[in-house]
Amino acid sequence: MHHQDVPVPFGRIRRTMPLAGFTARAAGGRVIAGLREKAGQDGAVEQFHERTAERYAELLGHSRGVLMKVGQIMSLLDTRAVGTGGFWPYQKAMSRLQADAPPMHPVLVHEVLEGELGSAVEHFAEFTEEPMAAASIGQVHRAVLRDGRRVAVKIQYPGVAQAIRDDLANAELLATFLRFLAASTSGVKRDVKSVAREVAARISEEVDYRHEAATIAAFSELYRDHPFIRVPEVIAEMSTNRVLTMTYLDGMDWAAAQQADQDLRNVWAETILRFAYGSFRHANLMHADPHPGNYRFNTDGTVGFVDFGCVKVLPELQRWRQVAMNRALQEGRKQDLRDIMVLAGYLTADSDLTADELYQWQSELLGECMATTPQPVTYTADSINRVVRCLFDVRDTNHPVARMTAPDDYVFAARLQLAVSSVCAGLNATLPVRAIVEDFDGAADPVTELGKKHHAWARERGLPSALDHHDHP
Q1: CA torsion sign, 350 to 352 to 354 to 360?
Q2: What's the CA gap between 48 and 274, in Å, rounded?
Q3: pTM score
Q4: Extents of the domains making up the chain
Q5: Where is the ABC1 atypical kinase-like domain (predicted)?
Q6: pLDDT digits (tens, 9 = 90+) for 255-269
Q7: Helix H or strand E segment including 438
């Protein structure tokens, strides 16, 4: 067996299993065959999954490769609620590995900083060695520059970029893992090629901190002088491929925000909605990582957004079609909805999926903003479960998702919908969602105070509206 050295926080360990070994279709085949063989035995399937999950957890160790990153991407979805729940043991095992991974030793942190920034490290007046946050690719430290600015410094784990690139070089690794995920949750064979391509593209961008710096700059310019959305500014001279320095955003974390007054939580939820769905209406940016840990909540109702590693830049035609699909849905134009979905690449014109079926599916998926839903709407656990049923709980071939193909440009739209619903439910938010969506799309004047402030800001900035054609490829 080939052994590969992988640098990790405390030095180097031996990766005892080449991840390429996981790509063999036989691995997934053995799992599914085992499930079928044991299906008649009480509790045997669950035990089989748990044993297999522990084995993979042991083999993956602290390697922080692509599968660990996919585990993080899946973290917002409680897969116990999806289909058969068969993926839950694997998600739990990967989450434990991520939580148990130690932070970088302070000596290594300083080695990385000095190696990346050289003499620029002298710009730090203060640097807190204890990380304020850690994830699958890097960790974040507080610091103060000599000019007095407070900053957050994101430092990439040594070796993680190469480990991920090595994994991505094996084209079958991600696809096999996603096939296994689909089979273990539903038993239904699904086309995962587009999902694998998009996940690989976003992960490969995420290990390049210069790319994230450029993305932050794009969002910072888009939301310049916004009344309630806050985006950090990049400190370019203190940023490299492996170190990203940005201005520090104050605010409560997710746990504290959930304990705040309900009226304030409603304001925060609307702010998050407007950021998540407004970014691709005013520009072509889809923030594809709307995780609660990426927000900073303030008592004045503002929200800071602090992680921009996973962002999809939508081609203009696909961006416009996304909004046009929403308008057709809201206005009950069923055949138009189907026609646009055909043009967008979800299905072929001769598909047996009817306009009525697509309208019913989309109406359930986006239930909070439909005309038949009493307003305002309170987001609850049922909101999340409904989205999960629509997007992931595919246990038979008649489910619309099983009869469609996710176009590459829209792969992360599903995650965005689920994540935003989860955040709003976590805040127990009550919002006039339909009215917010109508003013999003320029179909009606805003009725909320935040909506009025947002539209006044957008007019002053001269930003295009949702159905305007943007000056973008």
Answers
A1: negative
A2: 44
A3: 0.81
A4: 4-101+166-205, 105-156+208-248, 251-473
A5: 96-328
A6: 999 999 999 999 999
A7: helix 433-440
